[in-house]
Amino acid sequence: MKKRLGQLLIMVLPPMALFVLLVAIWQIVTGLGGVRDFIFPSPLRVSQAAWLNRWELLQATGITAAAALAGLAASLIVGMLLAVAFSQSAIVRRSVYPYAIFLQTVPSVALAPLVVIWFGHEFRSVVVVAFIISLFPIITNATAGLLDLDRNLVELFAMSSASRSQVLFKLQLPNSIPYLIAGAKISCGLSVIGAIVGEFMAGYGGDWYGLGYLIVSTSNQQKTDYLFAATLASMLLGVVSFATISLAGDWVLRRWHAPGSAGEVQGAN
After folding, report:
1. What is the pTM assigned to this prediction?
2. Could you tell me if 61 and 237 are in contact, meaning their C-beta atoms sit under 8 angstroms apart?
3. 213 and 64 Cβ atoms separated by less than 8 Å
4. pLDDT confidence of 256, banded at 50, 70, 90?
5. What is the four-CA torsion angle of 145, 146, 147, 150, rounded to 10 degrees?
6. Per-residue pLDDT tens for 36-65?
7. Highest mean pLDDT range out of 58-67, 119-128, 200-209, 246-255?
8. Which of 9, 141, 125 lies closest to 70, judged by CA?
């Protein structure tokens, strides 16, 4: 327990110390004068704006988080299914994979307006944008994990006359777990970006909106202190998403056993 606490402190203290240092420098620079508040507000003004609008900020953060989480979940499911299909058929992989690359190369700001036209100014449009942007890392990493197998293990399963389904479930899928987690770490940040970009265009309506809409509206109203607060909230959301996926991935990997044990090979018979 003490060892884990020490490791946690080693991971947390350096970035926290740097953060405190940067905020202190920020406060000193703005306190010296010469920079107008509406251009570059001080940390104190940003924190005051965040506190005064805390409920609106929390609601917007929650809505954006929900859209990002839904998009990430969809990308994990669809990406893993496509990766399995790619691993089972070279023809399918060569036919479909270029289109997956196409989704990655299209700028999100160009894709979002089309999605809004197709799905409307609603929550589902934001989820679709988050899904599209976060899909590619899942496909590439999961496919690599399903195909990058130890040749000795493949030969052992072949000697055991294992069927394709047995190879898939007892060798390929377990082998892909670390790759999938690595892809999820990338995609969780992309899903937040996708959700915010989608909200730039979708906006929602009434009193129901996310951080993307809040960033656009505060920018148009020149509420720079509140704009900084909303931007920092989006950054914090990305960090929390990455930390959550990292902790969950570490938990899974600690309980995951490498494929190819004698019991697994014998179980293929």
Report:
1. 0.85
2. yes
3. no
4. low
5. 80
6. 777 888 889 999 999 999 999 999 999 999
7. 58-67
8. 125
Is the pLDDT at 269 greater than 80? The verdict is: no
Which tokens belong to 82?
């496509």
**CB count, 10 Å around CB of 104?**
14
Q: Give the burial class of 117: count Cβ atoms within 10 A of its Cβ; 0-12 exposed, 13-18 middle, 19 or more buried.
A: exposed
**Cα torsion angle, 260, 261, 266, 267, sign:** negative
Provide the token pair at 17.
């110390």
For residue 215, the SS3 value is helix
3 state SS of 208: strand
Total residue length of the chain? 269
Least confident of 44-58, 188-202, 229-243, 252-266: 252-266
Report yes or no: 147 and 114 within 8 Å, Cβ to Cβ. no
60 touches 230 (CB < 8 A)? yes
Long-range CB pairs of 228-233, under 8 A, 24+ apart, other chains included: 228/41, 228/46, 228/49, 229/46, 229/47, 229/49, 229/50, 229/53, 229/57, 230/57, 230/60, 232/46, 232/50, 233/50, 233/57, 233/60, 233/61
Question: Whole-angstrom Cα distance, residue 264 to residue 148?
Answer: 18
Q: Helix, strand, coil shares of the chain as percentages rounded to 5?
A: 85, 0, 15
Q: Given phi > 0 = left and psi -120 to 50 = alpha, else beta, which region is 204?
A: left
